[in-house]
Write a structure and sequence with these properties.
Two copies of one chain form a homodimer.
Chain A (H helix, E strand, L loop, with lengths): L8 H15 L6 H8 L3 H8 L2 H24 L6 H17 L8 H7 L6 H24 L4 H23 L4 H19 L4
Helix pairs in contact in A: 1-2, 1-4, 4-5, 4-7, 5-8, 5-9, 6-7, 7-8, 8-9
Chain A binds a DNA duplex through helix 3.
Chain lengths: 196, 196
DNA sequence: CCCATCTTGAACTAAGCGGTTCAAGATGAG
DNA sequence: CTCATCTTGAACCGCTTAGTTCAAGATGGG
């Protein structure tokens, strides 16, 4: 395993991301990362730099991957806003149900620990949540909601989406998570005027 | 400062609770606790036992203190359910606005880190969230909602309440937090039939 | 076949962790 | 005043941490 070849960076990043996602930044040691990625400590150091830099890469990977999915789910908002919102939450619910990844949410986990993380990581996480809000607001405006209503619902949808991360870690059942979402979708349907 | 006197246990517990609340279990060292409480390491050890036992005491203190407030807020649910729900969220919003305590929520913070905490702490935290659900369901049933509706709304209200902890740590403004809650209160008002 | 290239495991440093012990000192009761 | 009681600071233990270095070994190109 030497010469000219190299390990797969993407696979290693995925493994590190899942480790951070499950255990959080503070409770993930370099040993944990080495074990999770199958890479040597020195390989991690030479490929990604220090722990902070690697975490940042993982955070970026996470927000991009799921951000794209959220965008796709909301793409039909102008025509069918309620279906778009439902698809939006389904992304999160499917992620929680996926046994290949931890429950919870890397962003939620990180933002909860932000007081003890580096300023750059904390800022990047805030940015990620802010972008979620922007994404939702744009979708709701495309659905021709009034500006104030779109603003309120964007905050509400972003919040409820984060609540799924907390409640899944608290051991809530799929039915309970679905109930949380359904009340919100009902409120949106009411506001949209029972169309869709 | 010796002889027969002693420091104030309640004050020390409050200080330790706030430290855990702000920084989380993993990122709070005995040195941090010593600094926060003003107590010596050996005093902490002799008075509360190890870090895990102290954390449990703080968790108990937190859930009792705010649990009582939530109960009081919901006590008028049978007569004025919407006002009760509003008062319920106001407890959380006031806590977040209170500069004397950190934002976020000790329970939410702990449950997010549960995969790396001791089993007893994780179980106790799950229990606390479960009790919140029970408290809300009882209040909604007292308001004569159908069983299924009460169940759904209890899950939703508990989830939205936790979302405030996440979003406050993400730097959301008071207005944004209020918007999250208002959508939920609107949905409840609708379900209650615009009474109250 | 041989050598340049890359990976790897292991060792090391300096620091911090939770946990524990204990002698010294301060205090108040008798 | 005296003595039992309690607090305190400091030190220590064994362990883990992040970070770094380097010689040994595996590999593939020429």
């Amino acid at each position: 395993m030497a010469g000219k070849k190299q390990f797969d960076i993407a696979t290693a990043l995925d493994a590190a991301m899942i480790q951070f996602w499950r255990a959080g930044y503070a409770d993930t040691s370099l040993d944990d990362l080495s074990r999770a990625t199958g890479l040597n400590r020195s390989s991690i150091y030479s490929s990604f730099g220090d722990k902070d830099a690697l975490f940042m890469r993982c955070l970026e990977r996470y927000t991009t991957r799921y951000g794209d999915k959220y965008d796709a789910a909301l793409s039909c908002a102008a025509d069918r806003p309620l279906a778009a919102a439902r698809a939006f939450f389904d992304i999160t619910l499917e992620r929680i149900a996926d046994p290949a990844v931890p429950d919870g949410c890397l962003v939620a986990q990180t933002v909860m620990a932000s007081p003890v993380l580096s300023a750059s990581v904390a800022a990047r996480t805030r940015e990620a949540i802010g972008f979620q809000h922007t994404r939702l607001r744009a979708a709701l405006k495309a659905a021709r909601l009034h500006d104030e209503t779109a603003e309120s619902f964007a905050a509400h949808l972003a919040g409820v989406n984060q609540s799924l991360a907390v409640m899944s870690r608290a051991g809530a059942s799929t039915e309970q998570l679905r109930a949380i979402v359904d009340v919100t979708l009902g409120a949106l349907a009411q506001t949209l005027g029972a169309s869709d």
